[in-house]
Amino acid sequence: MADLQSQNYIRRSATTMTPPTTRSNVEEVAKLIDVSRCIGCKACQSACMEWNDLRPEMEEFQGAYENPHDLNPGVWTLMRFAEYENDHGDLEWLIRKDGCMHCEDPGCLKACPAPGAIVQYANGIVDFISDACIGCGYCIKGCPFNIPRVSEKDHKSYKCTLCSDRVAVGLEPACVKTCPTGAIMFGTKADMKDWAEERIEELKERGFENAGLYDPAEVGGTHVMYVLHHRDKPSLYSGLPDKPHISAVIGLWKHVLKPVALAGIAFAALGAFVHGIVSGPMEVEEEDEAEARKEMERRAKS
Amino acid sequence: MQLTRRGFIKLTGAGLAASSIGALGFGIAGSAQAAAVRQFKLSAATETRNTCTYCSVACGILIYSQGDRAKNVKQAVIHIEGDPDHPVNRGTLCPKGAGLLDIVHAPGRLTKPKYRPAGGTEWKEVSWDFALDRIARLMKEDRDANFIAKNKDGATVNRWTSTGMLAASASSSETSYLTWKWARSLGMVAFDNQARV
Amino acid sequence: MTNSWQDIKNADLVIVMGGNAAEAHPCGFKWVIEAKIENKAKLIVVDPRFTRTASVADYYAPIRPGTDIAFLSGVMRYLLENDKIQHEYVRSFTNAGLIVKEGFAFEDGLFSGYNEEKHTYDKSSWDYELDEQGFAKIDETWKHPRCVINLLKKHLDRYTPEMVSRICGTPQDKFLKVCEMIASTSSPERSMTSLFALGWTQHSVGAQNVRSMAMVQLLLGNIGVAGGGMNALRGHSNIQGLTDVGLLSSAMPGYMTMPKDSEPTFDKYMETRQFKPLRPGQMSYWQNYRKFFVSFQKAIYGNAATAENSWAYDWLPKLDVPDYDILRAFEMMDKGQMNGYICQGFNPMQAFPDRGKIRRSLAKLKYLVVVDPLDTETANFWQDFGPQNPSDPASIQTEVFQLPCTCFAEEDGSLVSSARWLQWHWKAADAPGEAKTDIFIIAGLYQRMKAMYAKEGGAFPDPLLNLTWQYADPDEPHPSEMAKEMNGRALADLKDANGNVILKAGQQLDGFAQLKDDGTTMSGCWIFSGSWTEKGNQMARRDATDPREAGIAPNWAWAWPANRRILYNRASADPSGKPWAPHKPVIKWNGASWVGFDTPDYGPTVKPEDSMGPFIMNQEGVGKLFARGGMAEGPFPEHYEPFESPVDNVLHPKVKSNPAARVFPSDREHFGKGEDFPYVGTTYRLTEHFHYWTKHAKINSILQPEEFVEIGEVLAKEKKIEQGGWVRVWSKRGQVICKAYVTKRIKPMMVDGKPTHVIGCPIHWGFTGVARKGYGANTLTPFVGDANTNTPEFKAFLLNIEPTSRPPAIDLAHGPRKAGRSA
Predict the structure, then answer these.
(1) Which of A288, A291, A302 would best serve as a mutation to test chain B binding (most B beta carbons within 10 A)?
(2) Are B124 and B151 a contacting pair, CB within 8 Å?
(3) DSSP reduced 3-state for C28
(4) What is the pLDDT of residues C573-606, one digit of tens each?
(5) Comparison of pLDDT for B10 and C539, the residue scoring more
(6) Partner residue facing A291 (CB), from B2, B15, B94
(7) To the nearest whole angstrom, how far is the Cα of C699 from the nearest Cα of chain A?
(8) Sign of the CA dihedral C401, C407, C412, C415?
(9) Could you tell me which CATH class the domain C326-420+428-464 is placed in?
């Protein structure tokens, strides 16, 4: 396939090439999810499936409105519902659309060992290029938000594309267009931040004194941002990370583990390991994390 | 540095599969097949304005169908999204409206008239003529047998109570008007729609 | 809806009670969010459950299902007690000052005139005292003890905050907070809109639920104004249209009514439909009834309807009962009094109460015709689908036809939105397989029956043989032909007062003002007159321009009547013609005529000083706080318990439930009692699904795959029900085995000192479709209807619940069971 977009990407996984820089006047885009306007109707999920031709498996009801129950290769966005009783004893039903945050500094891309399998366009969209994906699952480990999912069928990793096909022709993403209450907005990142400010001011007037914008600096900001009524406690919203960070293990990967792994090419039993990663849980053990951090610090000093 | 055994295996294993491709020389060459967004699928599809079939917010929708209406094309609906010009929905659709494509192409869509005789244990496919002839005959028989021209006081009442009808609240007003004319000209009184339920 | 969807953004306060707008009408609900953001509006939700609408509300108050009248009566009492009514509006635009005749009374739960045997009222005492000219007497000072406002105060006196809380289970502080917020809109500049749906109508007191809020709105001066009104959010895409065109047992197109046995002649029929003004100088627009009626008969019977045969009056069937509604039809079927039934896009096996009775009744038919784009439970009622539909096909003697029809994407035509907009749509693709339009099917049956009657004769064939059918293709008329017929045309040259021809014979009418009662005009639905004029199809207009962003968009499609977007909009201005809220005027008097973005709902040049009331369809010209004989169970709303209720009626224990409600004697035996069924059940839709259709759509089935009930944590703990675990839920009529969703969003309410638990039953699953197989919530619901509309009481009934284990796989598997496999 011809690379028609080649001049529009700014980052590319597992590549040391310098991205083309001529097209410097591309506006960064962003999706703003205002959870205070969200009614949890799942129109975004529906439109996402319809536009992207996804029809994941129908699951069972498991005692929650979340359906399906988690992101998966066919579920690129998911409404998550949390019943929260606040300090006054009043119930708040905190509903959050979960999906790729399109980080400015994408952990998935950093972690990805497959050249060109993850790219970031100049408009900020982080996209997975299935052709180049090897299904290793590193993107999941690299992601501070636990978003990508590897398909057991084709061993490719999938997530929200921010409808890069629509955005490329000047349209808004499908979820944005369909959102009945305007809880999902789309525009330049600058405009979205301005709009968020207005919304936050209004929420404060309505008594949500901790209302604020979730555009976490830990990942360089995101191209999917949230307006939260409780910016002080993001984790109330079905575990949105209070302080998202890219695992230090990922930083370590390129420096330490890659040579180790390459050395390991002699092992014939590779497939088993790969399988273990693809289908196994992706959490980083705490001790690994700590060790990796120490190692990185040591190297930084030396 | 110490990694737990499980962590180490997973990390190196995955890294291996991936890196080996790069290290074996595809790293740079791979750029030839790098980032290219999916083709936009509606570029030349036919766009038809319609109204969502579900609730009576009556959202404007755009139905996209494959083909340009040329004679040799069997139009098939490939995508439906909101009409941005519509003053009420302004392009938005709810989870039902956004999934309209799947009701148009539902596996449960009916394609042939079917008939089940009295005491029958399964459906039989029949022709339209068979179905309409038979229904018209059954209706006439019932009407002729049970039509009430006058009540017990001798007043003209011209009603038919033994066959009833429920009319479709997702059909057009034009359909419903034609239905009214037909049903009432027969004297039908047990006549209702979804307004109550 | 009195107002439009976009007009909701003009509200200062939105109350969602008796509905769940965010879930059932998400795209219309956007205008609530818009009001919050652009207008700093507040949103109140009063509901038994903390719904997705409540999740974005500024204030939520719980209420026990079936007690809305007590709540709203308490609100009215609060408004009157605290003098939070819009005085000038109430004085000028309501019947507050009219004097009710002696003999009207209310005692121990019954109004004057009750007949215990027939469960109906003689309503003759529910009327005004008239003067010599036949006008209602008035006391402008409101001092007369029998003027409406004083009778109302007396009637409401019992609904103290304590009493409201005792009946409704709403904590007093929450009730009072809601009252306070509502009261803030009594100022002339502020408005509240009421958004409701089946949460109010599906009760044995449904119509009075709605009426209670309409009275609140009149007291606050919120009817006819921007951002106000009574907004019934209707369910199906053309349910408004089918109601407008009169596809109801007792209805005719344009809200005319079918004749009764007691009206054997046209003159007798017209006697009760003259609608003479009850106050001097009032328009009482229904005085034109005769023009609408004659023009309608000309539309359907053409030259066969003449002055000599009273416009073929005899050809209309006469009703011997108020309604052959759905409940009566199935009662008749069950008794063997009905032989044939046609379900056009309708699935009563899922939609009607007491599914067991529905299934049993269908099996007694000689023939059943189901016309639908989709496979339905009704078409397959005779098949054995296991516990969700146990059946012995060989024993069922019903002939069943299943006719495939087109869906929206495959046909042209117009639909009427909840906001009364007639919008045209266009065909995008051919139907699958051999599916045909409904029009083809109706025309096919008509042509066949006509031919049979012409050839063989039979019972009274005249109406059928003379029905107008002047369509280019009589076997499948084009929708545009019916649309033009509904609009109507001149049958002779129409002249103005000076003798100038304004329309030539054969030309389309400009509007219903041109209708005549002498047979020189025809119109199939007078309220649609103006929708397809000589200027073309007005329903297809697509100019979305909305001056001052008022929420009117007058040139988008076409709204009945007369392209009016806000009903009763004369009431948006004070008696002198100045808008109550100058920042959001709808119409105003400019010294010579009424002007505004919207079409005035009034005589365009009637001067304010002529004191013609704004409610021009009413004989009084004003809004009615006292309904006269308009309601079956009383001129004021009164709290009656649901037919299945866990508590007594604390106001009048002897009259527990609606004394005029529709109950068939055999169904009374199937009502459960609180001691056996201690929990209150209520049914509803989820936002992911549309009734019983979207279980056929993969996307929606993925979003909500399986039948479940919602229960609170306290009840779950008491009953040892686990999150997501299997439960058996049962009523006196049947049982459902499904999953449980244990939630903080349903809490026990203290009702008359006792904790009351609610079990929520979403309605969407059945035994056809791609979603998981379910029993359908209507397996549980009681067969009882509202006193005025016969709407079934789906929103409040009694249940019991217990945990159970996962059913065997065969009970969950899709498809009919083969004989011998079903054990």
Answers:
(1) A288
(2) no
(3) helix
(4) 999 999 999 999 999 999 999 999 999 999 999 9
(5) C539
(6) B2
(7) 6
(8) positive
(9) alpha beta
Q: Are A56 and C702 in contact (CB under 8 A)?
A: yes
Q: Say yes or no: C408 contacts chain B, CB-CB below 8 A.
A: yes
In the sheet with A9-12, reading across from the earlier edge strand, the strands are A9-12, A118-121, A126-128
Q: Tell me the pLDDT band of A2, cut-offs 50, 70 and 90.
A: very low
- Looking at residue A289, its pLDDT comes to 65
pTM of the model as a whole:
0.94
Q: By three-state DSSP, how is residue A222 classified?
A: strand
For chain C, the average pLDDT equals 97
B104 touches chain A (CB under 8 A): no
**Contacts A–B by Cβ distance under 8 A:** 209
Q: Which CATH class is domain C665-812?
A: mainly beta
How far is the CA of C290 from the CAs of C256, C310, C518, in angstroms? Answer: 10, 11, 9
Q: Does A20 contact B at CB distance below 8 Å?
A: no
Cα–Cα distance for residue pair A209/A227, rounded to 1 Å = 13
Q: Provide CATH 2.40.40.20 ranges for chain C.
A: 665-812
Which CATH fold would you assign to the domain C1-115+140-235+565-630? Dimethylsulfoxide Reductase; domain 2 (3.40.228)
Cβ of B35 within 8 Å of Cβ of A121? The answer is yes
Q: pLDDT tens across B86-142, in order?
A: 999 999 999 999 999 999 999 999 999 999 999 999 999 999 999 999 999 999 999
Grade residue A300 by pLDDT with cuts at 50, 70 and 90: low
In chain B, list all ranges with CATH 3.30.200.210.
Answer: 46-104
Structural domains for chain A = 6-104+163-236 (3.30.70.20), 247-302 (no CATH)
A291 and B98: CB-CB below 8 Å?
no
Tell me whether residues B180 and C369 touch, CB distance under 8 A. Answer: no
Is C705 at the interface with chain B, CB within 8 A?
A: no
Count the helix, strand and coil residues of chain C and give each as a percent rounded to the nearest 5.
Answer: 30, 20, 50
Task: Give the domain B46-104 fold.
Answer: Phosphorylase Kinase; domain 1 (3.30.200)
pLDDT at position C219, please? Answer: 98
- Mutation target vs C (from A42, A60, A94; most C CBs, 10 A cutoff): A42
